[in-house]
Amino acid sequence: MDKQRLEKSHRHTTADRAPSALSQNPRPAKLQARTSGSPGGDPNTLLPTGALASPCFRRSPSCRIPSHIFESNTRAPQDSAHRDRQVHPATIVLRKSQSSQAALVPKEHKMFMEEAYNAAICFKMLRDLNSADSLRMKYIIKKIKNMAQGAPNLVLETIHDYFVDNMEISTRHKFRLFHVLEAVIGAIDSLEETWEKTFIELALENMTKSTDLEEVYQDAASNVLVAICRHSWLAVAQHLETEVLTGVFPHRSLLYVMGILTSNKQIFNNGEKACWEEQLAQMAIKSVQFLNTDVWSKELLWALSRPDRTHQEQPPEKAFLFLYFGLILQAEENSNTVRRHLLALLETSHQWPKQREGIALAVGLAAARHLDQVWAILEQFGRSTPIKWSLHSCSPKNSEDLRWKWASSTILLAYGQVAVRAKAHILPWVDNILSRMIYFFHYSSWDETLKESFLTAVLMLARAISRNEGAHSYEFSQTSELLESLMVLLDKEPPDSLCTLTRQQTIHIISSICKLRPPPDPEKKSRLLSTCLRSVLALPLLDVLEKHTCLYLEPPDIQALYNKTSEALDQMLQSFIIQNPTADELHLLLSHLYVWLASEKAHERQRAVHSCKTLLEFLNRNICLDPKEDFKRIGQLVGMLGILCQDPDKATQGSSLEGVGHLYQLLIRQRGMASQVEAQTPKQSSQPGADEASLWSSGDQKTTPPTPQEMVTPKDSISQLSSSQVIKEVMKHLTMAELTDFLWTAIDGLGSASPFRVQAAADMLLAAVQEHGATLETVANLGRAIHLQLCSVRIPQARENVLLAVTLLARNHTPELVAAFLDFSISLDSHAFQLWRALGAERSGSRLVLAILLAWLRERPLPAQATDSSPPPKEETCLRSLAAMNTLRQLQGTQEFKKAMQEAYPMLLLALLTQMHYVLELDLPRGPWPGQEAQEAAAPSPQGASLEALKSLLSTTGHWQDFAHLELQGAWDHFTAIHTYPQGVGLLARAMVQNRCVQIKAVASQLLPNLLSKEERERKVSMLILVEFLYSPALLEVLPEQTALVVLARSLRDSSPEIRVLSLEGMGNILFHPAKGILLRGQLPPFLNGFFQNSEPVVVRIMGTVSDVLHRLGAHGAGAQSLGIAVKTRSFFDDERDGIRAAAMALFGDLVEAMAGRELSSLRTQVHQSMVPLLLHLQDRCPDVVTQARFAFYRCTVLLRWRLQHTTFCTLAWERGLSARHFLWTRLMTRSQEEFSIHLAQALSYLHSRQHHMKTWAVLFIGYTICCHPRAVSRMVNSVDRNLLLCTFEDLKKAPEPGLREFATRQLSFIQEVAAKPH
């Protein structure tokens, strides 16, 4: 080899080099010696001695290389495995001399030396390819490419000569040389024609060779041809055409090159690409003849159906073959031939994705000219048995089943390709194609393959339609069904992962389809919006989405994927508003965003508010809305964005504030006020760049977003304001309806589970009421809504703001709010109670609220009778009257209404008494309130509530004495029945008179108007009270005697018999007949003698009559007969007959009450002597006796002016334990020594009682006395009493109660100790 090289080297001269004898291609006439600072090779590259005999040195036979340019022991960069290898002593390196001697060499000789140096380096690197590893090979290719950029012809000639002169190099070495040659041709700027021809022939020669590397070697040679195409594709194309049209089925390498040329967009420019496609079409026309050649067509079908090396990627030759086959079918004029070949192609396997895509491409290309035939073929194939089987088979059992499993996906793709290739003829076929696509989508087994095929096919169809100019004037009947299918597809997407472009593509398709006619109806569009928004906005956080891709070999960029999907969603919203630029359309879009703006998940709110902001910015920038058409429900949007301005997430805050700015500008422009603020309008911000998009379109910021202060809002006038001030500024431009929507949004926000939303909503509600509360409308409905949401407000500051807003509303809307609050006050919960207190928080407001409640209380319609022809009353009015009663009951103890209640006491008293009569008239069931839920049944019934309201009025306004009289008598039961109701009212009025109530004059002044009322119940109540008030001297200060007579006389003509009877009773009062007192006192002695009758009922009646006489005598009293009454009455306290004991104690109490203020000393003694019997009878076995004893005891304590009267009353009324006994005993036994002796003596006398419980109670009484006053007792008790006590305690030790037994044991021991001590 070295000899041959030397011989060849002598055939060349420096000036003109002749072509190689072994090469049939001429070489360039002259090498271009391009030198630079470095000739392209490493100066330390190793060069073997034999390299000097290489063709690189064939320059001049007389050439001699100076010895000074040779150096030894220099290394080139090598792999780490060779770095420690010693350089062979015979190895030399050729390098460019930098010595001063080199300057003496002639210039031509210097250039020769540089070229020789570079050629030697290139030669050496080409030789090293054979043994280089992958890293070293990359390094060599890089160095040769760099060298080629400086001296392309030198490198190309070296490579060519290496091929030519080394015919026996290995296949692997040639494979690598082809890689180098491809890289070099691709790196240089131009390729001379001689080299084109040389390397085209070299590539063609090796493309079809069969080697041990098989297709890899062929592809490497083919890639050289592809690289040449970048410089001169026509020459390559001519060679390819010649090879393809020989009549023999083309070798795969030829198809490989054509496939690369067709698919690689970087090879051709636009003009060249069109020429190449035209040449392909001409080649296809010329290849039509081969379809009828049996061998050629069989090889074609075999090549098309042959399994690929990898099923994920299709080799370029096969992809091109499908394209070329389609072009041939397109050029074929015989439709039968087209049908035959298409059917043969469709009957091949459909198992692999690229195979299905190739089949569809061929079918689509054929349809460009044979649309009818292709449609018929697809219909026939779609109805064939294998396809029908594949539609209903979910689990293939063998390879034959797999072959047909995804045939429906092929059909879908084929329909898509048909739509693309049909171009201008597509519109009449769209509905047919869509119907078949929808059919296969719905009836095929669902999997990712079907989904992707359907989506790809629809995308192709949508693009084909969009490119057709007549599409917008054409009506399609299947678009509605297609939209349904797309919604199904989105619904079937996994809700917790985002790994594909499915969502993005589907939303783009929906946007395109909705542009067609007919447009989707509002209901369909609403469902589309809901589905698309849910599919995108409800996705988990990006971190969570990324976790779902951790097992992927090549995980997708989730951030970028989400950004594109979100952008598609925003574009869909913008597309909708462009197609229908109306306020209704904007409202529809925003109403679907509201759901997500109110989401409890931060990332969903963040995404939704970004979409909302983007939509508003788009509207602001494009001004596509009609300025004559006003916004709808824009107040709701202001409210939603205002709440989100307080979101904890900074990105959400920023987007919300920016959105409010865009909305503000829209409002200004829409309301015709743009000229007023034109000077304040800033320049529109540019579209966000890629970095901004990744931050603001994801809804899941991974970096810190700009703060709201850093955001550029659309209006400079509000850009520097806080979020609350911005909202106030926007509110100024809202109409009343929009402001109402704003308030409703704020109230709805109160029910959120997010604390920030509740606080923000409360702040906005308060701000709106402060600014516009006086002019608001529908306040009643707002009040009801506030009540419904108040239960959800658990933040103290938020609740305080809401209640303050109610207080401010009450300044101008008290009647509406009271009426509204009554609707939920039938059974008053704690939240309603707080609202009522807020209504009365201001003094003037509490008075007005109370007046309105009283007015509603007087609205008392009765149910219509069967014979009544009047219209039935409204149930609402009846319920509000009851609710007003219940509300008054609850508010009586509140601080806000305390003063107002006291001021309105007379009116309240009469109103509540009348209301009680009304409730009894309604005859409501004794159960829960009307409309009350089962769980609220613990609340009092209407009857109970009316009674409780009266009790509460008396007890909370300082009239507890009147309350005590009724409580201790058990008089409240009189108010529970219509027939005993007058007695109850009379007892209350009588208690007021007996207690000298300070409100008698005020109440009396209210009686006169009520007596003229149209309501009988009001006149009846007033008359009942007036009859009792006639016994009060205070009445005459308001109502003189003659006036009172006139009033009573007028009532004699009342339509009610009851009122007439009461009038007669009043006219018979002793006030008008002073002489009547003498007659009544004269009847007392015979009555007193009647006490000793044997008949219990007679005695009880007589005692009752005496009580009545004492009452009728009024201020005149019984005089001296009082003592006799007292003595005789006391004698019956221990009567064995229960009725007589009770009547006697009642009479004694009435006597004590009648003598109050003018008692005699003798009567006081009787009172002292009655205290112990009354106290002991509190344990009487008869309940009536207990009641009368309790009331009489209380009256006695009043007469004796005991301290702690209220405590005494409470003890008597409600306490029953030992503490009550101890308190009463202490009050009784610590008065005076005289009283102590009387009380102890009376207690000792009861030790002889035949009633066991009385005896036991007396023993306990004495026991307390002994424990506290042992000496006083020992002095007063004689031996007989002591023995009696001992016997009694001995008996008490046998009592069934353990406590009594223990008490008796201790007392017995104590008495014995006391008795044993000397006095």
TrEMBL record:
One Pfam short name: HEAT_Maestro_2
Residue ranges of domain MROH2B-like N-terminal HEAT-repeats in the record: 145-264
Keyword Repeat tagged: yes
Composition bias, Polar residues: 677-688, 695-704
Residue intervals of the Maestro-like HEAT-repeats domain: 603-850
Domain of life: Eukaryota
Positions of the UniProt region annotated as Disordered: 1-51, 675-718
Residues of the Maestro/Maestro-like HEAT-repeats domain: 1046-1312
Domain MROH2B-like HEAT-repeats: 272-577
SUPFAM superfamilies cross-referenced by the UniProt entry: ARM repeat (SSF48371)
Keywords, alphabetical: Repeat
Gene designation per UniProt: LOC103542478
Protein name, as recorded: Maestro heat-like repeat family member 5 isoform X2
